[in-house]
């Protein structure tokens, strides 16, 4: 592991030899007008999509992994933000830079690492585009990610004094191809998740290998990995009233769900179902998916004053394979804030073929979040 850490700076520097552009992101918002990408180009799927980020806009890169071992609550979630004050509701607080990193870690027994309550502050950031991927470095934080254009794999490296001396790496080996909200990762696709918010999903699922030293303990596990990017030209809360998002595995299937209400109450969805390396469903059709809260506190639509639900019922239309029916139970809440919840969860699911009966029960881990931004 230490040898790998010693190589981190070189690995990122070598990315500069790519044929794609290099973006230098300043720590303060631009005074200019932001140009926003919503139509996919031939390259740059995971590069910056707001040019430049002004005081109303945001861009962020999100990575996570949740342990696939039975009864384990181990997870890592890290987010690289380019978010001027007031543009994105998480993390709560105010800083003198737009370039932030959050790092939430849970151990197998569900306890939280000290990094979970901290925010890393960067002096500058660099994103290097290579094909459809990118490498990024939030300078001064001690965390960066790299992309391998040959294998499609991502690696995140940790050597951070800001996050209590954490060291190590996470390797994300793709399990399925990159995608856009409504279709595969090919040029010409829309990147619009809802009006005034974009989304790309370089890793709908990945075999993620974690090897970290955190709080003086070694944390190693293999889990379901995920990476996406979100952006918008205006504050997130003006585009989104509420949203349910999550990803996980159920039996041999990989799933990603979005069920969103805009600030004026219009519903949008984005559905992904994969099996191995094959995408079965990538759709924004409302008929492709529905997510609703269940159990205690099953308020819909959710509001900022309503308690968080204990689970969700999700249906996904698989076409000729039938309907995937999932009951998702919250297992361990990582954050429970007024407008936001993030949690480790467990999926129980069945597939009902057209005209048939439900098949055998399948299970697997998930990581999910809920925003409820209206009172």
From TrEMBL:
Where the record annotates domain AsqO/PenF-like C-terminal, the positions are 238-372
Q: Which Pfam families match?
A: AsqO_C (PF25581), DA_N (PF24137)
Q: Where is the Diels-Alderase N-terminal domain?
A: 44-231
Q: What is this protein called?
A: Hydroxyneurosporene synthase
Organism the protein comes from: Mycena sanguinolenta
